[in-house]
Amino acid sequence: MSLSALERKEYIVNKIHLEGKIRSDELVDTLQVSFETVRRTLEELEKENKLKRVYGGAVKLTLGRMEPGVALREHLFAPEKEKIGRACAGLVQDYDVIFIDDGTTTLQMIHYLTNVKHLKVITNALPALQLLQQYKNRGMLDAEILLLGGVVNTEQDRVTGVLAEQMLEYFQANKAFISIDGIQLKKGITGYDAERGSLMRKFIERSEQTIIVTDHSKIGEVKMYKIADLREVDIVICDIDLPEAWAKTLEEYDTSWIRAK
């Protein structure tokens, strides 16, 4: 297998997020490169926060069992999130009604909504509210902004709970943009928090189109709370290509995969 340096990185990232780990000697054989090249490539990927090197190879980078606070999440995979946010905004049309959740990835799409006309944005995220207000007050955003009411989680800067879910019953959106904590072929999309997960289900139910946004670190991950099956998802936007092992199933589900660039 003769690949460029960039292609080698993509191969390693895809494989490690499907299998959880990878051995250096396997990479030497598969990629037909030297151990030195493999070592250097793994070092570069570790610096890019795409894996963790261990003796004899590398393992998938994981954030653990507890949801990181929003202050930490903002800085994790920031370049990837910016690309994904731009790709999300590219799907928004004039006169759309959209749901934007509390993810730090979906937050990035707000920067690219300035050319959309007569937009309605419904969100449960306090940072999204603040950013939307800033753009609208500067005359750079043509949008009506609606904030869901409910219980405020101060660590995550979001609103969830029964009141928020009841309020959603009054709305029907064209598109729901949802960030997740885990995505796996058989287990579907999952999250850390039950209340947030319940609200995300409402987003899906009240929207014509469900768009899942995720950086590569969530691929293959399974968290405690089940949000939905992949067959319920219309589009996945990610910073890497669709894993080959998933292609046939997603085609059967009629679920599209967009690589953000």
Protein described:
By secondary structure, the chain is α/β, with parallel strands linked by helices. The chain is 36% helix and 24% strand. The chain has ten helices and 15 strands. It has a seven-stranded parallel sheet, with helices on both faces. A hairpin with a 3-residue loop joins strand 10 and strand 11. Helix 2 packs across helix 3. The protein is elongated.
Question: How would you briefly describe this protein structure?
Answer:
This protein has 261 residues and is α/β, with parallel strands linked by helices. Helices cover 36% and strands 24% of the residues.
Which key phrases capture this entry?
261 residues, alpha/beta, 7-stranded parallel beta sheet, 3-stranded antiparallel beta sheet, 15 strands
